[in-house]
Amino acid sequence: MLWKLIKLLLVLLILAGIGLVIYAYVGPLIFPSDFDAPTQTVTQPIELDVE
Description:
Layout: H1 2-30, H2 32-35
């Protein structure tokens, strides 16, 4: 009985890994807005200590 549970969990883990890889490759084609990089310009002044 315990072996069947371990086997089921292993199969589910493998399927979840395969699903994650498929989402990583196919996701940008289906959900492009989820995979876009932020396009906001970030500016921050810095002070240099030059002696």
